[in-house]
Design brief:
- The protein is α/β, with parallel strands linked by helices and 162 residues long.
- The protein has a single domain, classed as HUPs (Rossmann fold, 3-Layer(aba) Sandwich).
- The chain is built from four helices and six strands, in the order E-E-H-E-H-E-H-E-H-E.
- Helix 1 crosses helix 2 and helix 3 runs parallel beside helix 4.
Length: 162
């Protein structure tokens, strides 16, 4: 699969309903990505892959704006690479898929961005756990927030050991 173009804008609000999947590079999000391919294929819907990175604090020390912007740009580029590789791997595990996803890598709070992207969509697909540091939790903070507040049905994908 050739690399797909990556947008740094959220999916347009007037886009046809589809399947939105949140990806953060964790195993859980990659399992969710594979399931999202199946969902989009089964329902003949567009697939939108959304990754959000929260690169900077609200306060930036004077004189360091260029350093912070460079850091943010590197984080976005790194996440775009993670998303590209995840999409290639997930689509290879879905035999006969014809789904060509739209990729969106955004700077900002993942809950806020995924919540906005869930408006007027068919399904939001999430991994049960992401890259958070509390491995003992059964449900990650992003999944937990979106499970209760998403504006469309949510498909929560557990890891293969559950």
């Amino acid at each position: 699969m050739r690399p797909l173009p990556v947008s740094h804008q959220p999916p347009p609000p007037d886009a046809a309903p589809g399947v939105v999947v949140g990806v953060d590079g964790s195993d859980g999000s990659l399992w969710a990505l594979e399931r999202a391919f199946h969902e989009a294929q089964a329902h003949a819907l567009p697939l939108r892959v959304l990754a959000a990175v929260n690169p900077a604090s609200a306060v930036v020390t004077a004189g360091l704006e260029d350093v912070v912007q460079d850091s943010a740009d590197r984080l976005l580029a790194g996440m775009a690479d993670v998303v590209q590789r995840g999409v290639a791997a997930a689509s290879a595990r879905v035999p006969g898929t014809t789904v060509v996803p739209d990729l969106h890598v955004l700077a900002g709070d993942p809950v806020t961005l995924l919540l906005g992207a869930s408006a007027r969509q068919h399904t939001l697909v999430l991994g049960a756990r992401g890259n958070g540091g509390f491995s003992r939790l059964l449900l990650g903070s992003v999944a937990s927030a979106l499970l209760f507040h998403a504006l469309c049905p949510v498909l929560l994908v557990p890891g293969p050991k559950r």
